[in-house]
Amino acid sequence: MNNKIAPPKITEENALLPQQIHTLQSKEEISHCLISDSLIEYQEADRVSFDKVIFRNVTVTESTLHAIELTDVIFENCDLSNVNFSDAFVHRTAFRNCKLIGTDFSRGRFQNVRIVDCIGDFASFRFGKFKGTVFTNCRLVSSDYYQAELTHIEFSECDIDQATLAGCRLKEIDLSDCSFTGLHVDIEDLAGCIISAEQAASFAGLLGLVIKTDTDL
Questions:
Q1: In angstroms, rounded to a whole number, what is the distance separating the alpha carbons of residues 197 and 214?
Q2: What whole-number distance in Å separates Cα of residue 141 and Cα of residue 183?
Q3: Strand partners, 151
Q4: Does some domain include residue 42?
Q5: Number of Cβ within a 10 Å radius of residue 188
Q6: What is the domain-level CATH number for residue 194?
Q7: CB atoms within 10 A of CB 211
Q8: Which string of DSSP letters, residue by residue, matches 162-197?
Q9: Phi then psi for 23, rounded to 5 degrees?
Q10: Which pLDDT belongs to residue 210?
């Protein structure tokens, strides 16, 4: 699936105009700009739209941006911890080396999204819909995917210890190169989940697992 994730359609960074954000209004549309080295705080707005925007070294704090729309957006070295992005629509967007600790993406829709080298402990993706999303080398301890639709999602070399996957169908979800000592899951959703032989001990007594051995690698 890795090769099927469409990247953000930002061809030339030099064509993006530098811009500073001080306040955000509901239904505001912001496009074709570079937002860097700035602090966005104490904002509350609905359905703000960002299109073809790069955020670099930006901290967003104490803010609720409900139903934010992100299309062709790149976040680099940003801190979005504890921000409320519930009901977000995220399309062709990349998060690189960002802090997403406790960030609320509940009920969000994710299409063609890459999240790489990020820290997302306690992040919430409850009731989200994932259609083409890759988490790579991320720390996602105690992150929450309760009853999310994990269609075409990939976790690669992530720490997902104590993540909540209850209510998620895990058939063909490959967790074999992720690290965890335990997960919060429902037995009936585990059938077809792909794990390593070493991880099988975490699910001792549970049935329906596909265990990947060294000969399968």
A1: 8
A2: 10
A3: 131
A4: yes
A5: 9
A6: 2.160.20.80
A7: 15
A8: T-B-TT---TT-B-TTSB-S--B--GGG-TT-EEET
A9: -135, 150
A10: 56
